[in-house]
Specification:
alpha+beta; three-stranded antiparallel sheet; 9 helices
Length: about 300
């Protein structure tokens, strides 16, 4: 009886999610919808959106207006502000920044394990783009100022997406509860605008995409695309990917652009869940890859 009830709720949820499109779920995205519905039935909060890169047509959307925790994805906004400031004479790509004890943080990234204590701004941006380097993130935030990132975010017209804080090992009552938040609708718009060279200008957009193209985390949605995580900037089998991921306890999020021989898509998927056991986490990862398979079939 419990199994039948679960299946009934899953079907009902899938039908309701399909209404976000104003039509039935496209057949080539049914696998992803079913995966998301099953996860939602089991207590996972889901937000997702995919649009055709050329036409802007919405391919699917599930609660895409909801602001979700997105972990390091908010550092895309930091990279946009860094790209804008590179025009300043005293903030060039080769300007060297020193790390301090106050910047120190564990977690993602390689710089904390290296002996070199200072790096050029462009190298720090590359570390953030390639591996969500937490120490590089904090040094860049200190250099450009979180207020400047927030002002840039508002100027872009984003109201449900933001970089809220620096990276911290522990978040207390006086800290922002999350590193960043974002809505799938705004994030897909942002990446589409980057692809079109419309964020600040074509040069700045290209810089940001260049840093993001170094990303080595292909464990979520992009896990379905078959790329070599360390060598994929030039494309493979007619596919080209630029993506950014955000992962922390109970959060899995990804936004990206996937181009293929047939089409291009911009996508954003965020999931928030009780990360209390490994099977739950693995189901979330499996659901994300299911969406990736649908995206792959659309573009290839």
């Amino acid at each position: 009886m419990a199994v039948r009830d679960s299946e009934k709720r899953s079907r009902h949820l899938a039908e309701n999610h399909g209404k976000h499109l104003g039509a039935e779920v496209p057949e080539n995205f049914s696998r992803g919808f079913e995966a998301l519905a099953d996860l939602a039935v089991n207590g996972v909060q889901v937000s997702a959106r995919a649009t055709d890169l050329t036409t802007g047509r919405v391919l699917f959307s599930v609660d895409d207006h909801v602001a979700m925790p997105t972990a390091h994805i908010g550092t895309v906004l930091l990279l946009i502000e860094v790209a804008a400031k590179l025009r300043d004479a005293d903030f060039g790509a080769h300007t060297v920044l020193e790390r301090t004890v106050a910047d120190s943080v564990s977690g993602a990234g390689i710089w904390q394990h290296l002996q070199v204590s200072s790096l050029p701004i462009a190298d720090l941006a590359a570390l953030v783009g390639s591996m969500n380097d937490s120490l590089a993130t904090n040094v860049l935030i200190r250099a450009v100022g979180l207020d400047a990132v927030r002002a840039r975010t508002e100027k872009l017209g984003l109201t449900r997406s933001a970089l809220l804080d620096r990276v911290r090992d522990h978040r207390g009552p006086d800290h922002a509860p999350q590193l960043s938040v974002g809505s799938a609708k705004e994030l897909t718009w942002l990446f589409t605008a980057l692809a079109r060279g419309e964020i600040i200008d074509a040069e700045a957009s290209e810089r940001v995409l260049g840093w993001l193209s170094l990303n080595t985390d292909l464990t979520l949605v992009a896990g379905a695309f078959g790329f070599d995580p360390f060598v994929h900037r030039e494309g493979d089998h007619g596919l080209l990917l630029v993506n950014k991921t955000g992962t922390t306890a109970g959060v899995r999020s990804e936004v990206g652009i996937l181009r293929g021989p047939r089409a291009g898509v911009t996508y954003a998927v965020s999931m928030s869940f009780a990360d209390t056991d490994l099977p739950t986490r693995l189901r979330v990862h499996e659901g994300l890859r299911s969406i990736g398979l649908d995206l792959l079939e659309y573009v290839h």
